[in-house]
Amino acid sequence: ATKAKAAIDKATTNNDVATEQTKGTKAIDAVKVPSLTDSQSAAKKAIDKAAKAKNDAIDASNLTAEEKADLKKKVAEEVNKAKDNIDAATKDADVKTAQTNGEKAINAVEIPASVSKTDAINAINAALTDKKAKINGTNLTAEEKTAVINKAQKLADDAIADINKATTNDAVKTAKDTGVETINNMNVPTTSATKDAAKDAIDKAAKTKDDAIDASNLTAEEKDALKKTVAGEVQTAKAAIDAATKDADVKTAQTNGEQAINAVEIPASAAKTAAKNAIDQAAKTKDDAIDASNLTAEEKDALKKTVAGEVQTAKAAIDAATKDADVKTAQTNGEQAINAVEIPASAAKTAAKNAIDQAAKAKNDAIDASNLTAEEKDALKKTVAGEVNKAKAAIDAAPKDADVKTAQTAGEEAINKINVPATSATKDAAKNAIAQAAKAKNDAIDASNLTD
Fold it and tell me: What is the reported pTM?
């Protein structure tokens, strides 16, 4: 009406006034007076709008199709309740109240997390927890456990992602079952690769040491004893490796084990060393006896070479022996062989003395063949015997073959120089006495008065 009046006031001609009057009258006639039915229709539209907003939210949720359908049924029930209350309202105010209550009821329909998916995810997490417990119960290193757990976690994450993507309960179940099976079937190493590698390194170090022991000159018993020492270090190292919880600790245990094995010293054979010492002692005793003998230096040297040869033979047999008993046998045989080396009389001195005896015999024979009296012969033979004794004493005292020869020559010369008189002094004196008596007698005869 106000708009129409304003338009009439602005009209400048009667026709304009009539036109504006007609427009105003039609506009006023067109104004509809709202009825109760119109209020109810508007209220129901508001309810439908609220329901659509809720259903859109349900569709946008992570619920399965079945869960969405169930929730939409609740929304539909609230819609029906609200519209029934709107239809039952007799006043606009009651319509408005029914609308408001209906909107609140619809808005209050909660869109929960998917029970189906939650249960499925819980099953995945339970499988993951079990798998982690198994992994943590192994002898893997912390780093290896972390790597395997991360792998299991990735499988769980992938399974949960598949569950969340699933749009139906069946699809959720399939994703859950597949995920649980995949996690359960995931291999958990029974042994630590890091520890296995460390133990292999220990075994390699032990084999190298055992090979060196086998290649040594130890007896079988000594080798076995030394290998037990190596085996003890191996056990200690592997126990430390097993007890290690981190890769770095495993490496430390490995390094310590290798060093301990490498430090096992392979000594000279105690049994063989003792046997060789016994051989050396027997040789020294024999050499001392040789040195104390009356042999010449050359004869001593030659005899010591024989002893040295027996020593070498014995020690070679000891070195070749593979068992303690064999070493003892080689030692005993060597000692017996050394002890059996005879220290003879000096051949050079014996020969020299024989030469002296020969010279003495020749001289004595010459004396015996002479015209000396028995007493003169005995006296002369004593002189020979004296030279023999001197010569043999010089021979015995001679330290070298040349000295023996010199003493022999000097002795022979001394013996040979003993003069065997051509005539007996005793006999010569007797003969002279006889000659003197004869001469005296002849002189007496010549002085007598006898005829010629």
Answer: 0.58
